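Appendix C: a fully annotated inverse folding record. The material below is reproduced so that readers can follow the format used throughout the book. The structure is listed first as tokens, followed by the designed sequence.
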């Protein structure tokens, strides 16, 4: 979720404060920490896959840090072994992990605001991710987001189809007058 009116290049620039944080890391950890920090700032979550890093971002961060991009599957290993960075990045960005109570709150919120997006599953998940970013909560897992979205759609359908289609007094009036 790239902030509106910004380019990939603008989202790939480390601020002076970020550079100070990155430079505190060991030589081998600076690069991946910088990538994860920038990704979290723009997406409001951590990458699930190394393929989520934009190639231009990788190049620009390497230039800013004056490092050579490692060869091979370093990003895949780094994403899998970056758990220790997550806590630090959460503190820096003021985000927190989502809880079950957050999932319940997001379900309730989405049920109340979902009419805007006409229950399109992709739009519902995007709305959930945007709401999480507004609340400084990391989105739940994709499976949990899907579960929340399905709960909202199911509840809406149940409400829609459990109500009579005609008002009984109106139905009686129609029978008498036809």
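Designed amino acids, in order:
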């Amino acid at each position: 979720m790239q902030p509106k009116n910004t380019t990939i290049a603008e989202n790939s620039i480390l601020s002076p404060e970020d550079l100070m944080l990155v430079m505190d890391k060991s030589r081998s950890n600076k690069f991946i920490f910088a990538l994860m920090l920038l990704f979290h700032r723009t997406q409001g979550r951590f990458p699930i896959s190394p393929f989520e890093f934009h190639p231009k971002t990788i190049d620009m961060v390497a230039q800013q840090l004056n490092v050579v991009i490692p060869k091979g599957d370093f990003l895949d290993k780094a994403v899998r072994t970056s758990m220790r960075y997550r806590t630090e990045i959460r503190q820096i960005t003021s985000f927190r992990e989502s809880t079950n109570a957050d999932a319940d709150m997001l379900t309730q919120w989405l049920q109340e605001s979902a009419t805007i997006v006409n229950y399109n599953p992709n739009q519902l998940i995007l709305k959930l991710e945007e709401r999480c970013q507004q609340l400084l909560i990391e989105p739940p897992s994709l499976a949990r987001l899907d579960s929340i979205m399905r709960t909202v759609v199911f509840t809406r359908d149940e409400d829609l189809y459990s109500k009579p289609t005609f008002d009984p007094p109106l139905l009686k009036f129609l029978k008498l007058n036809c």
